[in-house]
Amino acid sequence: MDKVTTALDDDLNVAAAWGHIFDWVRNTNRDLSEGKLTPQQAAAHLTAWESIDAVFGVGAKQSITEVPAELLALLDEREAARKARNFKRADEIRSELKAKGWVIEDTPKGPKLKRI
Q1: C-alpha triplet 12, 16, 19: angle, nearest 5°
Q2: Total of domains in the chain
Q3: Which of 16, 43, 76, 96 has its CA 20 to 30 A from that of 32?
C-alpha cells in the first residue's frame, strides 16, 4: 500500500493510486483463491482495504433517498384509485412514477416507493 500513498503524495495522482489498488486487489484475490494467505495476512489485507476505503469511499453505503412529497401524494392517489377499483388510473400513476424514476413495491405493510 506504500505505492498508493506515494502516488497520492505525488500531486494527488489518483489515477496512479487506482492502478496500484487494482493490482493489489487482483493479487490479493489470486492469493486468497490459491490459499496462500494465512488468516492473519487476510485480516491485514482487510484492514488495508478499510484504510483505502476510508479515503476513496468505494464501499460506502448509499444514503436512503427521501421520497418527494409530490410522489407520496401520487402514491396515495394510486391507493385511492385501487380501492375505488379504478385500475386504469392506478396503472397510469404507476407509469407516471416510473417515468420519474420510481417504482412501486406493494408490500404486506402497504405500497412503498423505491428509486430505480
Answers
A1: 140
A2: 2
A3: 16
45 & 16 share domain: yes
- Classified as helix, coil or strand, 87 is helix
Cα–Cα distance, 74 to 97 (Å, whole number) = 8
Same domain, 52 and 73: no
Residue 114 and residue 103: Cα distance in Å, rounded?
Answer: 5
Cα angle 11, 15, 59 (rounded to 5 degrees) comes to 110
- Structural domain for 82, as ranges: 69-115
The answer to whether the Cα torsion of 33, 38, 42, 48 is positive or negative is negative
Rounded Cα gap, residues 75 and 71, in angstroms: 6
**pTM of the full predicted structure?**
0.50
How does DSSP assign 13-43, residue by residue? -HHHHHHHHHHHHHHHHHHHHTT-S-HHHHH
Distance separating alpha carbons of residues 21 and 71, to the nearest angstrom: 41
**pLDDT by residue (tens digit) across 56-92?**
888 766 655 688 999 999 999 999 999 999 999 999 9
